[in-house]
Amino acid sequence: MKVFHVLPLILLLLLWGCEVQGRLVSIPTKPDRKDAAATARWLVSQNFWGVLSTISIDLDGAPFAKVVSYSDGVPNQGSGIPYFYLTTLDPTARNAFKDERASFTVSEYPLGTCGKVDPMNPTCSRITLTGKLKLVDEKSEEAEFGRNALFSKHSEMIDWPEDHNFKVYKLEIENIFLINWFGGPKPLTVEEYFNHKMNNRLRSLMD
């Protein structure tokens, strides 16, 4: 009898787990590790949060890192450019107005595709994009694109307090550090990153 009492709870937990991991169903297959540009764009497109680091104005120039939500486009149609929804009530945005230098790191681990390895295992891909954190002109088409990209992955943002004055920021990428296997970082230029062509199915969705 005790088994039957526990079964509904087990089923509920399994269903809850499927819902939480449901994001995995829509994640395209991980690219060939030999294709650095494809791996980099896949990582940035499929992820939805990472660690954004800026130069602190409150800590005498020390690095200040913070977990942030982001999006580079609507699902499976990423532009490669990380967009953020930030407020100057938070140190990150204030830091950027003083010194735009920033880096942004995302890991494959949250996607659930690393298996049982540690997040620091080189087979679990990770990427650090370094460049300048810039405020996007809120009246521009890019700002509209950024908002749509962010709200498509983070619908809660739509209802964030208006008096917090959240605005769209982007990372203007200048350098890329990618680890997706043993042997150190993969050589990858910014041009190669942005020139990577998505597969035909995704391209057709964007036409």
Structural description of this entry:
It is a single chain. With 207 residues, the protein is of the alpha+beta class. It contains 6 helices and 6 strands. It has helices at 2-20, 36-46, 91-98, 141-153, 190-195, 200-206, and strands at residues 49-55, 63-69, 83-86, 101-107, 126-135, 167-179. The chain has a 6-stranded antiparallel β-sheet with strand order 2-1-4-5-6-3. Residues 1-25 and 200-207 have low confidence and may be disordered.
Bin the strand percentage: 15-25%
Distance between the termini: 58 Å
**Helix content range of the residues, please?**
25-40%
In total, how many beta strands?
6
**Helix-strand sequence:** HHEEEHEEHEHH
Biggest pleated-sheet summary: 6 strands, antiparallel
InterPro entries: CREG, CREG_beta-barrel, Split_barrel_FMN-bd
GO cellular component, one term: cytoplasm
Subcellular location: Secreted
Pfam family, one: CREG_beta-barrel
